[in-house]
Amino acid sequence: MKSSHISPPRLLCAIIFFALPLAFAAPARAQGQRCGVAKDFMVQALERIKIGSNDEVADGLELLKHANQVCISLGDAWYYRSLFEQKLGQAAKANYSLSKAKEFGSQAMNEGANPFILAAPPPPKGSPNLQAKLPAVAKKWALVVGISQFSDPALNLRYTSKDAKDFAALLLDPKYGRFQPANVHTLADDQVTTRRLKEELNWLARMAGEDDLVVIFVATHGTARSQDTADVNYVVTSDTDLQSEDSLFATALPMVELSDIVRTRVKARRTAIFLDTCHSAGATSTLPERATGLADSAPSASALERIRQGVGRAILASSQEDQVSFEGPPFQNGYFTHFLLAALRQNNGMDTIEQVYAYVRDELPKAVSAQVQAQRSVSLKNGASPPPKQATQIPVLSISESGADIVLGVSTSAN
Asked: How confident is the model at residue 89 (pLDDT cuts 50, 70, 90)?
């Protein structure tokens, strides 16, 4: 969303509070609201699972039980209950929960989802193969997403679609990315629905083998349910419904679904994820963009920790949780994407993800600081409310403990 400020931040974010007493709602509407709340409890339960300890499972199970108390017909919650109970050795309860999942129907069950299975598990601690050299990259695959147009026009962004197209163009450039055109799927329009995005993530999971390289780039709004937990993040898609708190979280894509596909289904032992979904909160609450009722949030540290589990996972987020992401002049991109593209062109695309991060980390905050000062000067001159002096944008890298260096421009053995 844009304002009259020079280079305004892309303040997107979530946490919408609507109070609609159930007593005045139609029965179907009330049931829908309860099931929306129940889905949020289910997502929180899945976010609890990072290493799969009994404490994590027990905490998650309580949330799943609460989800079914709120909405007894939520089949996915029953299915995950069966997995959590099985993990805790509660076989009889697990069988009962599975029967309820079959009764009500469960998409997660049909997909064989399981948050306790890592598609690329690390070797045991202390293993001599912990830092073993991986074979050469066989094939490279990429899903590039940038959403600029939303069902609510107030959320529209200016550069996110262009960011995705420019990132995809770099991947396809034979000088830098060296990806095969058929292996790069780009979604950069107003039809990036939650269903379409999940289908494309499933495409990645089906196609990529363990010796392949996978790249995911997502630029859109991001949300957090901070009134419940800082660990739950959502990705806003073009068809996300913002009419109420419950419809928002029923129609946005939970970050946990993206992370579970990466954790449990993407077998590639080199996977790089770039997230420009984070724009938050208190420090910018006086900006005009706040009027939409949204307050963006970057993926929490806990969410990033969850995604990086396994071998060869690297997640680079555009900002920290309490920061906004900037876009526009003097660049024709989001600031994060501008410097990410510049970093990926260094050394003809052959820098490691750590070297790419170091470049973005050094250059991005300096550019944002200069822009904030320019904004403050213009705002004060025009009598408008200036952005806070402390506004900055620092990218965050979370990376697996084991696995080979990730290099996007590497040539493949299949070529």
From this structure: very high
Taking the C-alpha atoms of residue 235 and residue 224, their distance in angstroms, rounded to an integer, is 9
Q: Across 266-312, where does the E strand assignment appear?
A: 270-276
pLDDT tens-digit profile of 314-352? Answer: 999 898 877 778 887 888 898 999 999 999 999 999 999
Q: How far is CA 251 from the centre of its chain?
A: 15
Neighbours of 135 (CB within 10 A): 10
Enumerate long-range contacts of 327-332, CB under 8 Å, 24 or more apart: 327/7, 327/8, 327/9, 327/10, 327/157, 327/158, 327/159, 327/160, 328/6, 328/7, 328/8, 328/158, 328/159, 329/6, 329/7, 330/7, 330/371, 332/159, 332/162
Mean pLDDT of the chain: 80
User: Rounded to whole angstroms, how far apart are CA atoms 249 and 39?
Assistant: 8
CATH number of the structural domain 140-398: 3.40.50.1460
Tell how strand 184-187 and strand 222-224 pair up.
unpaired
Domain at 22-111, CATH homologous superfamily: Tetratricopeptide repeat domain (1.25.40.10)
Domain boundaries, the chain: 22-111, 140-398
| Cα gap 201→412, rounded to integer Å | 22
Task: Specify the long-range contacts of residues 308-311, CB closer than 8 Å, at least 24 apart.
Answer: 308/398, 308/399, 308/400, 309/50, 309/51, 309/118, 309/263, 309/400, 310/118, 310/119, 310/120, 310/121, 310/122, 310/263, 310/400, 311/120, 311/121, 311/122, 311/269, 311/400, 311/402, 311/403
Q: φ and ψ at 150, to 5 degrees?
A: -125, 160
List 372's β-bridge partners, or say none: none
Gyration radius (Cα) of the chain, Å: 21
- Per DSSP (E only), the strands in 71-179 are 140-146
Look at the block and give the residue holding tokens 């969303």: 1
282, 285, 290, 295 alpha-carbon torsion, rounded to 10°: 0
Evaluate whether 377 touches 354 at the Cβ level (below 8 Å): no
